[in-house]
Design goal:
By secondary structure, this protein is mostly helical. It has one domain (2-160). It contains six helices and no strands. Helix 4 crosses helix 6. The protein is elongated and about 60 Å long. The two termini are 20 Å apart. 41% of the residues are buried.
């Protein structure tokens, strides 16, 4: 049973990191579940309670920021919903057809096209698209950082074994 939990936890770390760039999957919470599974597999001796609580709080904060950053930053630049949705669609198309750089390029182009559809002023559209791009990339980087840290601690604990 312990080996199965460790394998599932390892898969969840990878899925969590992928989920940081795929809009449908909540990356950090998925990665966090891997810490819980590893703790369970090691009879709660893989990590301290304080560590699990702190990582849980960080995961919740990053998940909340993931909803705020892509909306708050673009609004400061005058973006519309069209720019935000354009960036999301552009990111998905870019990921599918031009990985890994398509993610960034698709996000920016989608935001520009979405804003141009809404706002005919090219200068304002570019400024708004830049805000959408910055907000989206900031959220992705934050999620990847937290999921990467969780992954580091997960695999380090797997290699070292349970705490004494």
């Amino acid at each position: 049973m312990s080996i199965l939990l460790i394998i599932i936890g390892g898969i969840l770390v990878i899925v969590g990191i992928v989920g940081c760039v795929v809009p449908v999957l909540p990356g950090p919470p998925i990665s966090y579940v891997s810490l819980i599974l590893l703790s369970w597999a090691y009879k709660w001796k893989a990590f301290s309670t304080n560590f699990l609580i702190v990582m849980g709080i960080i995961t919740v904060v990053v998940t909340v920021l993931d909803f705020i950053l892509p909306v708050y930053l673009p609004k400061r630049y005058g973006a519309s919903k069209f720019g935000i949705w354009g960036s999301i669609l552009g990111m998905i198309v870019g990921m599918i057809f031009f990985p890994p750089f398509g993610l960034i390029i698709g996000t920016l182009l989608g935001a520009i096209l979405g804003e141009l559809a809404f706002n005919k002023d090219k200068r304002a559209s570019l400024k708004a698209a830049l805000g959408v791009f910055i907000g989206t990339i900031a959220a992705i980087l934050l999620k990847v950082s937290v999921s990467g840290i969780i992954g580091f601690y997960f695999f380090r604990a797997v290699i070292r074994g349970p705490l004494q």
